[in-house]
Specification:
There is one protein chain. By secondary structure, the protein is an alpha/beta fold. The chain has one domain: TIM Barrel (Alpha-Beta Barrel). The chain is built from nine helices and eight strands. The chain has an eight-stranded parallel beta barrel with strand order 1-2-3-4-5-6-7-8, surrounded by six helices. Strand 7, helix 8 and strand 8 form a beta-alpha-beta unit. The longest helix has 16 residues. The radius of gyration is 16 Å and the shape is globular. 42% of the residues are buried. Bound molecules: SN-glycerol-1-phosphate (1GP). SN-glycerol-1-phosphate binds next to strand 8 and helix 9.
Length: 241
């Protein structure tokens, strides 16, 4: 199954931009899902990502089942850990944290995940994941015990992303971290984009339509937003279809 990935490639070929709404099972109450998803459905969102850094066993599956009752958008897992893998979703970002040097998040957890993945039919998308410094310590940094790449170290960011592509990763994700004070700068986005031939995902700290447009202009193919919707659902009003 490669449907989600193929659709991303097709969208890019057609010069369409993509937006994922990130839902953290730790923060979303199941009884609020129907109302939240109706807003997602009326917006320009093209994907729903589900995941978080600290989520208890079973919560992801319960949430995904509830989300899928109310939308036809693809639901893609963006897991912080193996226990978040569920075949109730449509796909999985199989993230390798290539900005860091913690073997668990580079390959260790992936090896552990195989026994789960072998047993289920889930579209697996190998994704290079780069954590870029913003001004505060984010959950990814804390949980993965890795340091982000400094945002003025642009050549290292570019070379890391390119190394991921050369290793065969199919997507590249520039992450400022959930609730980041500074979203990924457009200069970084455009320079990384120039080097890559695979789709570029950008997330972390994006809170306005203006930031979304600038990130798209700089070369982001898919933008991920979580916190801005968690804090104020009226943001959906600005992103209507
Ligand atoms: C976090 O990139 C995502 O992993 C989204 O970040 O919650 O800041 O939108 P925000």
């Amino acid at each position: 199954m490669t449907k989600i990935y193929q659709n991303i490639i097709t969208a890019i070929t057609n010069a369409e931009k993509l937006l994922a709404v990130l839902i953290d099972p730790d923060k979303m109450k199941v009884e609020l899902v129907s109302n939240f998803i109706s807003k997602v459905n009326q917006s320009i969102a093209t994907h729903i990502f589900v995941g978080g850094s600290e989520v208890n066993e079973g919560m992801t599956e319960t949430l995904v089942v509830e989300i899928k009752k109310f939308t036809d958008l693809p639901v893609v897992l963006f897991p912080g850990d193996i226990i978040q893998i569920t075949d109730k979703a449509d796909g999985l970002l199989f993230l390798s944290l290539i900005s860091g040097r913690n073997p668990d998040y580079l390959i260790g957890k992936h090896v552990e995940a195989v026994s789960r993945l072998r047993a289920i039919d889930l579209e697996v998308m190998p994704t290079g994941y780069l954590l870029i410094e913003n001004e505060k310590v984010t959950a990814v940094q804390r949980v993965s015990e890795t340091l982000p790449i400094k945002r003025n170290n642009i050549q290292t960011i570019i070379d890391t992303a390119k190394a991921g592509e050369l290793l065969g990763m199919k997507l590249m994700y520039l992450e400022a971290g959930s609730g980041a004070t500074h979203a990924i700068e457009t200069e970084i986005i455009s320079k990384v984009k120039k080097e890559l031939s695979i789709p570029l995902i950008v997330g972390g700290g994006i809170k306005s339509k203006h930031q979304i447009e600038n990130a798209y202009k700089a070369g982001a193919d898919l933008i991920v937003i979580g916190t801005a919707f968690e804090q104020d659902e009226s943001f959906f009003e600005h992103l209507k279809k």
